[in-house]
């Protein structure tokens, strides 16, 4: 949702940067030029500062983060990063190198939290001969993907259109309460019950475990909100799709119940 235009005023920005606990920067733009994000849930305005904060500790750090992001968005120019890459050949073996450096800091002057580190490569000329300083052979093995953190799980749910901002936050706790996963060292580990549930559902119909099925329902609800289809049309389409899936589940429920029961007992023990 867009920010109200009234909050983008140079006097407010000047008052914000004058306060001892503020960002202590001078915005380069006299007139605000806010960037509006592409996402709008239609329910909440973005968080923004309304007055200098007089507290301390963690609360102050949170306020500074919000205030700096506000200033960076509305009163600072884009940052400019130079990217370079090079292709080299050693005894017929092709090697590639790449690097980057920030040439215009822009909004990173005030919003330094995600400022990239410079890692430039030197100026090179096509055909230039370079001196080999050393050659090292590194032997390694591929690693499986890391387990998901709660933030990563919520991000993937958003990317796949599962749930809304209001309902999505309850899912991490829900899968733990139902015994589908446990949380270890900040990441989720599936339990035998969780893995068996996915295995059983996928064997009945892959549509039961892919995010596309849920996403289509969420998309239909959004289309109802936008007035593109009626509630009755969406209900008919959703019912038709889920009837087929439920029919398959009912037909094989007895066959698969024993498999799930064994996983439940294993998880409980």
According to DSSP, the number of beta strands is 4
> Averaging pLDDT over every residue, what do you get?
82
**Share of helix among residues?**
40-55%
Poorly predicted spans: 1-8
> How are strands sequenced across the largest beta sheet?
1-2
Distance between the termini: 48 Å
Based on CA atoms alone, the radius of gyration comes out at: 27 Å
What is the total domain count?
Answer: 2
Strand content: 5-15%
- The helix/strand order is HHEEHHHEEHHH
Q: How would you name the CATH homologous superfamily of the largest domain?
A: Topoisomerase I, domain 2
Which CATH class of the largest domain? Mainly Alpha
Based on the structure given, which CATH architecture of the largest domain is correct?
A: Orthogonal Bundle
User: CATH topology of the largest domain, anyone?
Assistant: Topoisomerase I, domain 2
The largest pleated sheet is described as: 2 strands, antiparallel
Instruction: Please report the number of helical segments.
Output: 8
- Helix-strand makeup class: alpha+beta
The coarse silhouette is: extended
């Amino acid at each position: 949702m867009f920010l109200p235009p009234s909050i983008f005023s140079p006097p407010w920005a000047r008052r914000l940067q004058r306060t001892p606990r503020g960002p202590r920067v001078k915005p380069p733009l006299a007139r605000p030029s806010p960037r509006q994000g592409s996402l709008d849930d239609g329910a909440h305005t973005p968080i923004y500062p309304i007055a200098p904060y007089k507290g301390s500790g963690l609360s102050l750090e949170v306020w500074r983060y919000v205030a700096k992001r506000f200033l960076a968005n509305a009163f600072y120019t884009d940052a400019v990063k130079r990217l370079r890459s090079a292709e080299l050949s050693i005894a017929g073996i092709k090697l590639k190198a790449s690097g980057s450096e920030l040439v215009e800091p822009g909004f990173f002057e005030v919003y330094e939290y995600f400022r990239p580190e410079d890692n430039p490569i030197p100026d090179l000329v096509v055909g230039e001969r370079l001196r080999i300083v050393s050659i090292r052979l590194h032997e390694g093995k591929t690693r499986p993907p890391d387990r998901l953190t709660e933030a990563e799980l919520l991000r993937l749910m958003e990317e796949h259109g599962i749930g809304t901002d209001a309902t999505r936050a309850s899912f991490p706790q829900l899968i733990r309460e139902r015994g589908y996963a446990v949380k270890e060292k900040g990441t989720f580990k599936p339990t035998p019950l969780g893995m068996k549930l996915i295995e059983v559902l996928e064997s009945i119909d892959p549509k039961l475990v892919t995010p596309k099925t849920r996403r289509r329902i969420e998309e239909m609800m959004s289309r109802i909100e936008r007035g593109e289809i009626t509630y009755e049309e969406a209900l008919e389409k959703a019912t038709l799709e889920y009837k087929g899936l439920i029919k398959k589940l009912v037909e094989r429920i007895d066959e698969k119940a024993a498999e799930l029961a064994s996983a439940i007992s294993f998880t409980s023990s």
